Automatic annotation (TrEMBL):
Span of the signal peptide: none
Residues involved in a divalent metal cation binding: 17, 168, 221
Stored Pfam families: SGL
Cofactor: how and how many bound: Binds 1 divalent metal cation per subunit.
Superkingdom classification of source: Eukaryota
Family label: Belongs to the SMP-30/CGR1 family.
Keywords: Calcium, Cytoplasm, Hydrolase, Metal-binding, Zinc
Protein name: Regucalcin
Active site: 221
Sequence positions that bind substrate: 115, 117, 135
Record's keyword annotation contains Kinase: no
Amino acid sequence: MSGVEIKQVAPSVGLGEGPYWSQEDKALLFVDIVNGDVHRLFLETGRHQVLHVEADESGASVSLVIPVEGDRDLFLVGLGRSLAVVRWAVSDPDRHAVKAEAVLHTVDPQSPTNRFNDGKCDPQGRLWAGTMGFESTPGEPRLHQGSLFRLGHDLQLSHMVDKISIANGLAWSHDKKTFYYIDSCTYCVEAFDYDDNTGSISNRRPVLGYKAAGLQKDIPDGMCIDEAGNLWVANFYGKKVICVDPHAGKILRTVELPAQLTTSVCWGGPDYSTLFVTSARTGLTEEQLAAEPGEGGTFAITGLGARGVPPTKFKADMSLLRAKLAK
């Protein structure tokens, strides 16, 4: 594709996920789920911080990282089946380990091997995060074991969708009327009507079915939206990212990557014209890893002629959050 450049910007990890661009720090945040680490990569200087979050009783995986508005050092993370808060400063050592400052909620008690997977904040700053069942093989979990949850400003948790298999990509339309969502095992990008005031969703419907689009071997994973309202979707086992017109239900373009297991995407850089893509290496054979050494890497794609919009931080009632942290 003319003018498009793809560069690996971070070393390979086990299961990269949850990229988030911090304009404040000019840094890319992402997680390594299987190793319980949060990464912060400062693109201008090359500095690379790694925060290891110690396991709690609900699990050791760290599956999402979202900054908390109002305190530069606080972040929401998915920790096993819990939503927790960690403290992490730019001044901390490049390699650092912490315990969660507070666990806000632990979910899915009936499925103790579940874990949180993807999460993102809506335009109002409420966190939406979903769980998934245990995977014996990447991309093949116990089906219909997870749920999608919404964490409000008041720190109360609402159950939004049940019988999720792999909770994945999330995005909201710029007019704040549509919520786009991916449960990977449906092999479909879906949409809901969305009420920005109440945070309610309804009228679930398909946007792009993978089989009908000729993507029989690919699994839809993480997702983001660009300034024009098009969706960019990472394709696990597909070695690519696709751009989708959600109104026409059509693929507009495909960008191939040097990693088979692409996992998630976000826009970033000074003008949000760089598409960052995470990937995984967990579950691949030695032969597969030798053939594609970029597996598990994080990539920056430039020259796409598209750009995103700034992500939303988690907007908590800080008096309630500080009370939680003080316990």
